[in-house]
Amino acid sequence: MRVLILGGTAEARDLAVRLVEAGADVTSSLAGRVSRPRLPVGEVRIGGFGGAAGLAAYVRREAVDVLVDATHPFATTMTEHAVAAGAAAGVPVVRYARPGWSSRPDAAGWHWEPTLADVCRVAGSLGRRPFITSGRQTLPAYAAWTDRDVLVRVVEPLDEAPPPGWTVIEDRGPYVLAGELDLMRRHRIDVLVTKDSGGTFTSAKLDAAAELGVPVVVLARPVSPVGLTAVSSVEVAVAAVCGGV
């Protein structure tokens, strides 16, 4: 069985290991946006396909049996391309995304918002020293925050200089509670801005916010499109792929 994994996440790397162990011929595709990506086992390709049509052509050319979208839960464009490519090439599509944070005991007290504009509005009303952890692609939504002390954490360097008063940290998880508590205390953070990425790599910031009594504003996950099989665990993903979906 030939499997193409659209990856870049820890879950995608885990799935690649499991599928290779199960005897599948696995190729993982990375977008190439991270300069030093953690590479999965099996074959790896880096770079885009040229939209849904290009992805469908690749699937046909490489005789892919199952297409797995294991990109970030907020990579909506890639998911849409995967669905369209799967339909065009006549192969099943599995969407594997880690569970979100909505089941956490403290999640009911967070501010869940559907759009970045809503996140910015609500977070702006709650504090003057925000900690933004929603990714560099979301930062333009907060560009008007030039009148406050903003802490931003990103994996890759910003393409443009941040506004005055912003402090940018380049780092990647996993993070631990002690470090997050120290960071938020040093910068006197009074509101945490994030998105419902899920997983454990970055969840320590949520524990720190709970301990410090800092309000949390969360960008809710987009709704998955129809035309795919959605799973939220590696075991179910492996079963779906090996079972032909």
Provide a descriptive summary of the structure in words.
The protein has about 240 residues and is α/β, with parallel strands linked by helices. The chain has two domains: about 1-100 and about 220-240, NAD(P)-binding Rossmann-like Domain (Rossmann fold); about 105-220, Rossmann fold (3-Layer(aba) Sandwich). Helices cover about 30% and strands about 20% of the residues. It contains seven helices and twelve strands. It has helices at about 10-20, 50-60, 75-90, 115-125, 175-185, 205-210, 235-240, and strands at about 1-5, 25-30, 45, 65-70, 95, 110-115, 130, 150-155, 165-170, 190-195, 215-220, 230. Helix 5 (about 175-185) crosses helix 6 (about 205-210). The longest helix has 14 residues, at about 75-90. It is elongated, with a radius of gyration of 19 Å. The model has no long low-confidence stretch (mean pLDDT about 95).
Shape: elongated
Beta-strand content bin: 15-25%
Total helical elements: 7
Strand order in the largest sheet: 3-2-1-4-5-12
What does the main sheet amount to?
6 strands, parallel
**Separation of termini?**
12 Å
Which value, in Å, is the CA radius of gyration?
19 Å
Q: How many distinct folded domains? A: 2
CATH architecture identity of the largest domain: 3-Layer(aba) Sandwich
> How confident is the prediction overall: mean pLDDT?
93
Name the helicity range.
25-40%
Number of strands: 12
Unreliable sequence segments: none
The CATH homologous superfamily of the largest domain is called NAD(P)-binding Rossmann-like Domain
Structural class: alpha/beta
Q: Spell the H/E element sequence.
A: EHEEHEHEEHEEEHEHEEH
The CATH class designation of the largest domain is Alpha Beta
